[in-house]
Amino acid sequence: MRILIDLQGAQSGSRHRGIGRYSTSLAKAIIRNAGNHEVFILLNSLFKKDIPQIINDFSSILPKEHFVIFSAFGPVEGLVAENDWRREISELIRERMINDLAPDVLLIMSLFEGAVDDSVTSIRRLPTSTNTAVILYDLIPFLDPERYIPAPPSSTWYYSKIDSLKKADLLLAISESARMEATDALGFDGERVITIHSAADESFSKDKVLPAKMEEVLTRAGITRKFILHVSAFEPRKNFEGLIRAFGLLPNNIRKSYQLVLVTAIDLAGQISLRNLANDAGLDEDELAFAGYVSDDDLIALYSQCTLFVFPSFHEGFGLPALEAMCCGAAVIGSNTSSIPEVIGKEDALFDPCSDKSMAHLIERSLSDRAFWESLKAHALIQTKNFSWDKSAKLAIQALEQMPSAASHASSRLSLPKFLDMFTSIKKGSPSENDFIACANSIYRNENTIKQWDIVRQNAGAALAKKRLCDLTLRESNRAFGDQILLDDSAIKVIRSDVWRQQDRPRILLLKLDHIGDFIVALEAFGLIRDAWPNAHIVLVCASWNKSLAEETGLFDEVFCCDFFPESGADFDRDSMTGPGLAKYQALSLGSYDLAVDMRYYGDTRSLLLHTNAKYLAGYVASGVKLDVALPEVPETEMVAQIGARAMALAAAVVATFAPSSGRAAKILLRGRSPIRSFTSGKVIGIAPGTGNPIKSWGSERFRELARLLHEKGGFKFVLIGAASDCAAAKLIAEILPKSDCLNLAGTLGIPDLSPIIAGFDLFFGNDTSTTHMAALLGVPTICIFSGQSHVDSWRPLGRSVITLKRVVNCSPCYLTKLEKCSNNHLCVNISPTRVAEEGLALLKDSLAE
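Structure tokens predicted for Mannosyltransferase (Modular protein) (850 residues):
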């Protein structure tokens, strides 16, 4: 059986919530327990930033070739009416892609996605021969519509997903409570709903926390004494208010010994509201602590150290935090409603969430009755054994195996002309020229994906799709820029800087297959990389004679041996060692990495990077290996640079590329001045339309259209900057913006005075020029629109919140100094303002989330 898992729940806004955790964990368990079944994973191209990390997370159990990326075009957020046409077309495109992949079963990990992001989910918009199963978490909005979906557009969107859910062949419920909701509220036949439960990740264990780590976490969370813990999303059904009131009802002699710690992603307004409630309940300020959103490692520490975990929710689909807390040895009590009794599994550990007194009474008993508290902790160790991801996966696979043969469904193959004819029946919205272009490109890319995967027989038609949609475009709208009607977005290179902060934990592989002297002089370089990322998992591959020294340095988390060369000095034949050396290297079980660096100066080991599973490859340049970070090769015959200095140069290049800025440049630019907010409200977008040389310019007309598109989104303010020579371009942009929303500073300030203005921007757009580099160094989310005049890897700005956009053309880099010398009509800057706006808004959203 071929199982295709739609894993958008791990890409969307749910990825940091229980649904994202559930989706990823269950998918991994299904893969581990698949037996003779084939498993593939379907991902959404609109979340392209997260795709490499997801593939990397599965690399030890699923080949990269088993991931399928379906191309969609956005935005498709379900609560925005202007997106209706794009969303419905994208749903059809996704279903066609699935039909072409021809799985026996499609398992949708999270159907109710896409209200506020670019997830694309639907069931049976097209005829299909594939059985469809859906993970059912809960039907809370359906059961309480007045609270959760009181009116359109939220109700319209939600009920459309309910309509899709009803078309599923099988529901896999995460609790018996959720299963009963499907049968009682939606009328599902009991045989179509199977309970598979949930589980906690294996990392949730009190044994995984070091004492030093514990102290650090408690200090960071503002915890000064024993504490009661609650963990959940900040939603009305989670009953934060009831918990605070119940805590306030405890006798003073008990309450004063504890803090109530809330782990939730909550904004300032929410914190103020709960603080006011706590004050009304008689709590002192230090009795309530907000830990905010915490990492899994920190969460495990808090679970392990809390005196009591309280889960007062009114309604849950499962209640994963309660199970995670029990896995970490916590004493856990919770509500007697929905799925929570299934998870806790102890009747005297339950209270009525609608009664503050009931909750307070059980909290008081748990804190004052030592025998009862110990019984809660003992029960937790027993109860958690009833749940595991492998158990859930086996139940899921068994249910999928028992589904009726897919042959009983209608034929799924729809010819491309008939598929395109379906578009005319969609009357919602007013698609633009760019919409038709993006639609054609999505179909084209999906057709190519099917060819590359060779999972099903390829039906010709990509060219037909492009021609028909292009014709439709010509009938519907005028040409916006030049004669290039159909611009393939895949020709736009989106270059992001993966920047790992000191607290991040990238996996880094270092190859140093050298002799003892070479290894010793590289120690400073190794130390430079370790200093940049103290928490990184750094693995070294070295010769066996360097192993003990490597381990004693304390710089590496793991050391692997590979005797690529013989031990004796230069007494070896390079040509004869390559084959055996590669075989030794391939025999190592190294796993996957964010970055792999070959630290050997000579190029004879560089080809090993081609046999390394890493997102980025770095080293001194060598033929045949494309590197992300490389230094010019010093001629071997001259040996101009000292060997230790060469190693430091490579390490410095790696750190400069992937580590965040030290902030030194920003301090120099600001010279003690504070950022200046040019407007008192709204998000401020900076635009610098100029550049020193017209051959590097995106063009004032495009910047003008970009400003118009961004202003349509509403709420944005604009500041235009540039030299005196940029005044005409800035004036052209300012003319289409309300004066109250635009400040034109072009030609009024020198470079030194621009720094505090730029530092006050929320988002910046510019060419490859000085102000763009300044914005990046100041930490402003920056979009650099790069021409093909110079080499993008040499001149693009770097930073965690920096994106460079460049059209892929064969004539780049040309290094021409005059625009009139370009014989290709400046094609390299032909990037649509719509695409630039989309990338900018996505970058702003990601930056605000961070």
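Confidence is low (pLDDT under 50) at residues 455-490, 569-573, 634-639.
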